[in-house]
Write a structure and sequence with these properties.
The protein is an alpha+beta fold. Bound molecules: 2-acetamido-2-deoxy-beta-D-glucopyranose (11 copies).
Amino acid sequence: MRLMTPWCSFLVFFFLLPVRDIASGAVHNITLSEPLFQNLTLVSSGQIFELGFFTPNGSENQYVGIWYKNLTPSRIVWVANRDSPLASADRSAKLTIGSDGNLKLVDGQQNIVWSTNVSVQSNYTVAMLSDGGNFVVKDKNSTEVWASFDDPTDTILPNMKIGLNTRTRERQVLLSWKNDNDPSSGNFTTGITSETPPQLFTWNGWTSYWRSGPWDKSTFIGIPEMDSSYHSGYALQQDPQQGTTYFSCDSDNNSFLAYASIPPEGILALMIWDYGSNSWLKSRAAPSNGCEVYGTCGPFGVCNSINSPICRCVKGFMPRSKEEWNRGCIREAELNCQKNTSRTPSTQVKKDVFVHMNQMKVPNSAEYLSDIGDVGGCQSQCMNNCSCLAYSYVSTIGCLVWAKDLIDFQEFSTAGQDVYIRVADDNTGEMSPGNPWKDQLKQDDTSEFTLFSFSSLLLATNNFDATNKLGQGGFGPVYKGMLNDGKEIAVKRLSSSSGQGMEEFKNEIVLISKLQHRNLVRLMGFCIEGEEKILVYEYLSNKSLDSFLFDSKRKAKLNWDTRFRIIQGIASGLLYLHRDSYLRVIHRDLKASNILLDEKMNPKISDFGLARIFSVPNFLGDSNLNTWSKFRRQQWIWKT
Ligand SMILES: *[C@@H]1O[C@H](CO)[C@@H](O)[C@H](O)[C@H]1NC(C)=O
Ligand SMILES: *[C@@H]1O[C@H](CO)[C@@H](O)[C@H](O)[C@H]1NC(C)=O
Ligand SMILES: *[C@@H]1O[C@H](CO)[C@@H](O)[C@H](O)[C@H]1NC(C)=O
Ligand SMILES: *[C@@H]1O[C@H](CO)[C@@H](O)[C@H](O)[C@H]1NC(C)=O
Ligand SMILES: *[C@@H]1O[C@H](CO)[C@@H](O)[C@H](O)[C@H]1NC(C)=O
Ligand SMILES: *[C@@H]1O[C@H](CO)[C@@H](O)[C@H](O)[C@H]1NC(C)=O
Ligand SMILES: *[C@@H]1O[C@H](CO)[C@@H](O)[C@H](O)[C@H]1NC(C)=O
Ligand SMILES: *[C@@H]1O[C@H](CO)[C@@H](O)[C@H](O)[C@H]1NC(C)=O
Ligand SMILES: *[C@@H]1O[C@H](CO)[C@@H](O)[C@H](O)[C@H]1NC(C)=O
Ligand SMILES: *[C@@H]1O[C@H](CO)[C@@H](O)[C@H](O)[C@H]1NC(C)=O
Ligand SMILES: *[C@@H]1O[C@H](CO)[C@@H](O)[C@H](O)[C@H]1NC(C)=O
């Protein structure tokens, strides 16, 4: 056991701390006469932060960065030369004050790799690291001429600010590392917008990825956990005259260790050091579910993470494409205010109405109307302007209106705002031109039958992981899955093509979904995207009958009573399919593996109706004839 100690400490040192040169000394400042060599680190006076040279694990590059001095695991919070690395083999690089008073990173060949590059009056400057993690260059008069807090990497520390100045075009954002071992500029940027009120935003390249919703003077209203009781120290200053907007999190307690950062994968995280467990705890992450990803449900789509599927349309809208929700929804009826009324007598002009939705994350691209003091004023302002598509009166902000498509619209289970969306008054009986597919869905209670997105099924089945596979049916493998709300499902990924057109295929599924009997497995919905055709069924916990019949141990659990009930149930289900249902479905592939058992051992026939969906020649192939004989054999085994 004693041998373990050095090995463990080696591990801790090597894997958990930033891999850096073994510095033999610590200094508290860098001056013209005393550069920082690789064998030294610069330490803040209270020993909280440390600056020095480091080489990421497995990298050939060397950087200058700042990390927490005494924490394991530590974390690099700032990198000077992220996009202009030194070679890790360069042993004589140094960080020094140049003759112009600027701080410079100089490599072994005396090339300037990185510089603070500000105008300074004299060369008598000194660089120091504060206990808050700010690396500053001060002039002779102790005036700060440069600060690392004005040049963030991927991390925001307490009292650091991100923001922008629209006049000077200066902007402080967080920009992710390329990957965990490469600090060069990655894909994700987090910053503050200059609109009124501002939002915190994460972009993936040029694409929006996450937004906080507008700032209401104490919280971002699109983050429901951040309700009014939330005391955060977050501060946001906007000065329209100066063109500046700055966001920071203020703290005067250097023992409270916290940071927010945008990691290479783009999930903004707030981390707090827990002195009890001596580890970083993630206190918040965004986006934290599919609905929080910007625009998941497209224009006029509404996302609710506890629904399945998570997307639906605002009332008065219908999906542009059920396969691709991110294309959003379109109006069922044109707005009356947009119609050409020159030929209609004014007495017959129809009105628009507002659909009310509550507990909402307000959509993106709001316009703030500053001089409106109540919800009534906000409504009439919107009603009287045909360009206004929606409004929301937020007591802590005021009147917000939307003239663009409503995007990134989300429904919360707590908090959130009331939003009113303009639609044509549907009492007029005007509907969109008939769409049989949609009408068919409408006839049923559509909430019972859903169209799943392929991505939601990928998520539910852990990318169709082999460990989720329940079995292999005649038409493709079946996987167990779990929806966002915890509901278990069985997902059948059809392997062969149906030989039918897409519309016919959909219609067929809708018909089959109407076959309902207590001894038939319930079809919950389906997914058709690209080549994928997937059926989603209720999940039955006791698997299939063959898993009992042909297992020497489980077999014993089937006493005669149970067997008899199973036989009766199958017969009853078959009778319904073959005789009583209006579709008259002949199963043609009945076998023990197609009889599923619920938690009370009630039998449910599965794979019914697929005979209708798949063309007949395919279905009468040899393998199915074999199934018939197998079925007889299984019946026989079952009887004995
Ligand atoms: C560092 O690299 C080694 C060797 O490539 C690897 O085994 C180890 O997991 C890496 N550690 C970290 C923290 O990435
Ligand atoms: C730099 O640090 C040294 C010793 O650590 C101290 O003597 C000196 O006064 C410091 N210089 C400045 C400018 O703070
Ligand atoms: C650190 O390195 C510099 C230059 O490489 C050298 O002059 C100095 O003596 C070293 N100091 C220590 C404490 O090793
Ligand atoms: C620093 O500035 C002083 C006065 O401007 C000058 O005499 C001196 O040479 C400079 N030192 C360096 C290293 O450039
Ligand atoms: C320093 O800044 C000037 C303008 O402010 C710019 O033109 C120059 O390229 C910068 N130099 C370095 C080394 O970044
Ligand atoms: C430093 O302060 C003195 C007097 O307070 C002033 O004359 C001088 O211009 C200042 N120097 C710089 C570089 O700010
Ligand atoms: C500073 O933060 C630490 C760690 O969270 C806490 O224990 C301490 O009470 C705080 N001190 C003050 C004065 O707020
Ligand atoms: C960054 O974007 C590129 C190009 O889209 C992609 O190949 C890469 O995987 C992305 N990196 C991360 C960490 O998402
Ligand atoms: C409205 O209808 C009138 C009469 O048919 C036509 O002249 C006019 O161009 C139409 N206006 C628009 C904007 O379509
Ligand atoms: C109507 O709303 C649009 C978009 O908000 C705005 O640009 C326009 O000025 C408004 N028109 C009137 C007359 O208020
Ligand atoms: C059937 O499933 C239920 C619930 O999953 C379980 O409690 C029961 O033991 C199972 N029955 C048999 C015979 O395995």
